[in-house]
Specification:
- The chain is mostly helical and about 475 residues long.
- Helix content is about 45%, strand content about 10%.
- The protein has four domains: about 160 residues, Rossmann fold (3-Layer(aba) Sandwich); about 100 residues, Glutamyl-tRNA Synthetase, Domain 3 (Glutamyl-tRNA Synthetase, domain 3); about 45 residues; about 100 residues, Arc Repressor Mutant, subunit A (Orthogonal Bundle), CATH 1.10.10.350.
- A hairpin with a 3-residue loop joins β6 and β7.
- The protein is elongated.
- The protein binds one RNA strand of 75 nucleotides through α4, β5, β7, β8 and α6.
RNA sequence: GGCGCUAUCGUCUAGGGGUUAGGACGUGAGAUUCUCAAUCUUAAAACACGGGUUCGAUUCCCGUUAGCGCUACCA
């Protein structure tokens, strides 16, 4: 039974890199019928906040990455870390360090200036245990440091990168427990991962270099190693690590941009991971669109790339349009309703009509936000008219007069169908000696408030005879 | 600086000792049209560089270069 965790630090929102790591963890857990655990690493009290925690949870829920256990908060498990540090102290793997932050900073600066690697100099490493214990008992502030073996190498087998080896001499005696008793990252992750019986550690490749320290900790604690799997990072278009200056990096920002969560998930899954030949179809082409079930079915650590990937907004937009087009209107409706709520828009048509409207529009929409902004005329009689569209298609004042005349003809048209409305319009255009396109484009602006819309006659049928007549004749009186 | 990881079209990637190096997004051209998409056809586009190993390297090895990561009493 596999157990994997996603362990974000609430010092920021859930960014796309973290979201993808969470997705991989979740995919792995589901694929192996294992357990997906959520753990909040909030031991940096200064920078962590509850708002960030709720934002992270919201982002995970939006992506549909439900967790089986947790969320656990490290801030509530301080006793475990203290006890773990004590064990390490007792077996000689750790020692008290009385150096102050200021002293350390000074020495670091000096070492850097001298061109020497700024590692902890081991000053407190060989203090007699009894002395150290006495000083601590006397109330002197002390951190607890891990004792790195002074020779040899530490190696581990990464499920993605293969065997990775580090010389112990490159590692420093890092702090396990700060002088205020709060653990440092390395201690808390390892203590928790052991305590929570994690079998696989799937995390960003930025932790690859941290891993030997943690391997040493597992050893010192007599625990067996989990499988480490480091996943390559996501970069911005300039190939530097993705950050705020690349624009939206919070997953919730993508929600606000009208991205369908499954589309985002599909896109993210294929960034740094590939199903390989499994995606090949009979015609030789390779699929890119995969349902959640398919993703779960195909996912494996073997398909993971070794190099970083650039986040490609255009491709995300493509996934989004594909999902919007493929989803049944009933499935799109709740997502669209959220947009309407957010925009303060209240549709005035029946649910049945709304579903028909979605069906009419979904083939040409790129973002869920379109439904709240540019498509208002389809769901309410209260809609804005785009001035650029007026300028483009209704510049000639005579067009409005013709459309008004056309409205009169439409008033008595039976049946009012796509075929009949088109026939009538074309005959009317011929009669008046104008090109049908002029009337079609003008009518489109009046009926939808936009210069862009689905086939005009389909729109007419959707809106219904009464609305068409009303909107067509209102244009002239409104003096657009 | 030290250490670690990585390197296939602009981007995401498949592939792998002998291939016309495949697909997707995007881009160009054409078709269609009622606007905009979509759709269809089509085109351009890649194995970073240098050494090995080999009959033969894009593929294996080494180096160079470049990018990224780590190098805190952050995570």
């Amino acid at each position: 039974m596999t157990r994997v965790r996603f362990a974000p630090s609430p010092t920021g929102y859930l960014h796309v890199g973290g979201a993808r790591t969470a997705l991989f963890c979740w995919l792995f857990a589901r694929h192996t019928h294992g357990t997906f655990i959520l753990r909040i690493e909030d031991t940096d009290f200064e920078r962590s906040s509850e708002d960030m925690v709720s934002g992270i949870l919201e982002g995970l829920r939006w992506l549909g990455l439900e967790w089986d256990e947790g969320p656990f908060y490290q801030s509530q498990r301080l006793d475990l870390y203290r006890a773990t540090a004590d064990r390490l102290l007792a077996n000689g793997s750790a020692y008290y360090c009385f150096c102050t932050r200021e002293e350390l900073e000074q020495r670091r600066a000096a070492a850097t200036a001298a061109g020497v690697p700024p590692r902890y100099d081991g000053r407190c490493r060989n203090l007699p245990t009894a002395d150290a214990a006495r000083r601590v008992a006397a109330g002197e502030a002390a951190a607890i440091r891990f004792r790195i073996p002074d020779s040899g190498t530490t190696a581990f087998e990464d499920a993605v990168f293969g065997r990775v080896e580090f010389a112990n001499a490159e590692l420093e005696d890092f702090v396990l427990l700060r002088s205020d008793g709060v653990p440092t990252y390395h201690l808390s992750v390892v203590a928790d991962d052991i305590d929570m019986r994690m079998t696989h550690i799937i995390r960003g490749a930025d932790h690859l270099s941290n891993t030997p320290k943690q391997v040493l900790l597992y050893n010192a604690l007599g625990a067996s190693l989990p499988v480490f799997a480091h996943v390559p990072l996501i970069l911005g278009p300039d190939k530097t690590r993705l950050s705020k200056r690349h624009g939206a990096t919070s997953v919730l920002a993508y929600k606000d941009m009208g991205i369908v969560p499954e589309a985002f998930r599909n896109f993210l899954a294929l960034l740094g991971w590939s199903p390989g030949e499994a995606a090949r179809q009979a015609d030789g082409k390779e699929r890119e669109i995969f349902s959640t079930a398919e993703l779960v079915e195909m996912f494996s650590l073997e398909g993971m790339a070794h190099s970083n990937a650039v986040f490609n907004n255009e491709k995300l937009a493509w996934f989004n349009t594909e999902y919007i087009r493929a989803y049944a209107p009933e499935r799109l409706l709740p997502l669209i309703e959220q947009e309407w709520q957010r925009a303060g828009f209240v549709p005035s048509r029946s649910r049945e009509d709304i579903l028909a409207g979605i069906a009419l529009l979904q083939q040409r929409t790129r973002s869920l936000t379109d439904f709240a902004m540019t498509f208002r005329a389809y769901f309410s009689d209260d809609y804005p008219t785009d001035e650029a569209a007026v300028a483009k298609f209704l510049a000639d004042p005579s067009t409005l007069g013709l459309l008004r005349e056309l409205a009169v003809r439409y008033r008595t048209l039976t049946p009012f169908s796509e075929l009949s409305t088109e026939e009538l319009l074309r005959a009317f255009a011929a009669e008046k000696g104008v090109k049908p396109g002029v009337l079609i484009n003008g009518a489109r602006v009046l009926l939808t408030g936009q210069g862009v819309a689905p086939s005009l006659f389909a729109v007419m049928v959707y809106l219904g005879q009464q609305r068409v007549v009303q909107r067509l004749s209102a244009g002239a009186t409104a003096g657009i």
